Amino acid sequence: xxxxxxxxxxxxxxxxxxxxxxxxxxxxxxxxxxxxxxxxxxxxxxxxxxxxxxxxxxxxxxxxxxxxxxxxxxxxxxxxxxxxxxxxxxxxxxxxxxxxxxxxxxxxxxxxxxxxxxxxxxxxxxxxxxxxxxxxxxxxxxxxxxxxxxxxxxxxxxxxxxxxxxxxxxxxxxxxxxxxxxxxxxxxxxxxxxxxxxxxxxxxxxxxxxxxxxxxxxxxxxxxxxxxxxxxxxxxxxxxxxxxxxxxxxxxxxxxxxxxxxxxxxxxxxxxxxxxxxxxxxxxxxxxxxxxxxxxxxxxxxxxxxxxxxxxxxxxxxxxxxxxxxxxxx
Length: 330
Known about the structure:
Blueprint: E1 4-8, E2 12-15, E3 25-27, E4 33-36, E5 46-53, E6 59-66, E7 77-78, E8 95-98, E9 111-112, E10 125-126, E11 145-150, E12 164-169, E13 185-196, E14 199-200, E15 207-216, E16 223-229, E17 235-242, E18 250-252, E19 257-258, E20 265-272, E21 275-280, E22 283-289, E23 299-307, E24 314-315, E25 317-329
Antiparallel strand pairs: 1-3, 1-5, 2-4, 5-6, 6-7, 8-9, 8-12, 10-11, 11-25, 12-23, 13-20, 13-25, 14-24, 15-16, 15-23, 16-17, 17-18, 17-19, 20-21, 21-22
């Protein structure tokens, strides 16, 4: 492999066990990079550091000095969960939650705004403790969020007959109109495990759950990730690309990966100046040029458990656990 240039805009870094440095250098495939950044002295103040590796999008890290009531004042520190690129596992910084039920007396499906998520929990969306057994029988590690969606749920969103328990990204929290376009770098990465999948009512049927999407305002989603069970019982993950901003013109990814129920995996949707790439377990599934077909589109990410079936074709429920979510916009 040819070495790639590496640099940081502030602070310092080291490669493997070398000395920390502020000078640009070179990195080889397989090297481990450690960043070092001095946190702000004032509580609630953040500092950022950009890691630049040739041929890769910048990685921007943010450290917030937290006032921890349990620690002496002189031991204030930057919490680990703050050192993530743009948005980490805290869903209240991601956007709003859509639920597969209508129980609040208002028109349409129930939704939980970002500002209320830190104190929200239900059978459809919750954070299990370490050792807790989920409805699907999965023993939680204690760092996950459960998205549970039954096929017979009583409510669906406008334009769809399929239920979902799903997060909708909001770059300005509480505002669905603040979205983004094709230019720049836009990445969503997740670590998930699908622990249960609904069962087809007819033998030989197929069941599907969408767990990550690149969506568009007023149009079909350009990209969907699918976890599906085929008629012979095999399960696999693939991505699906819409070649037009209308329904009925989609293409499955050339690559599909066999992944079992209960098997943890990673995925990534990467959109850089109109070129979208889908990746699972570091394997590229598909690469598409969106620059013409999706010109003018306003986009946002989604994550969770969105069924490709309903009570007319399936029974049971899909359960998806996220242990990591990361979103980058540059």
